[in-house]
Structure formats: C-alpha cells, structure tokens
Specification:
- With 45 residues, the protein is an all-alpha fold.
- The protein contains 2 helices and no strands.
- The longest helix is centred in the middle third of the chain and has 24 residues, at 4-27.
Length: 45
C-alpha cells in the first residue's frame, strides 16, 4: 500500500510531462506539414 503513495504521483508527473512535450511539439510546428515529407521523396531534384 505504501508503494501507491509513490507510484500515483509519479504517474501524474509522467502524464504531465508527456502532455507538456506534446504541447511543445504542436506549438513549435512539428505537425504543420505532415504530407510534405512524404511528397519530398517523390519530387527529387
């Protein structure tokens, strides 16, 4: 039972870190042009 007092806050911190990383990626524009990289191979110079 004592381990739950450690695991529950750790899981909350991990979930918040994942959400913060996803929010950072969205705000930095990582998901703006998803099709561009797939089409880049087709239009080689």
């Amino acid at each position: 039972m004592d381990i739950l007092f450690l695991l529950i806050p750790l899981s909350v911190v991990l979930a918040l870190a994942i959400l913060a990383g996803l929010a950072w990626a969205v705000w930095r524009g990582q998901f703006d042009a998803l099709d561009a990289e797939g089409e880049r191979i087709l239009h080689s110079d």
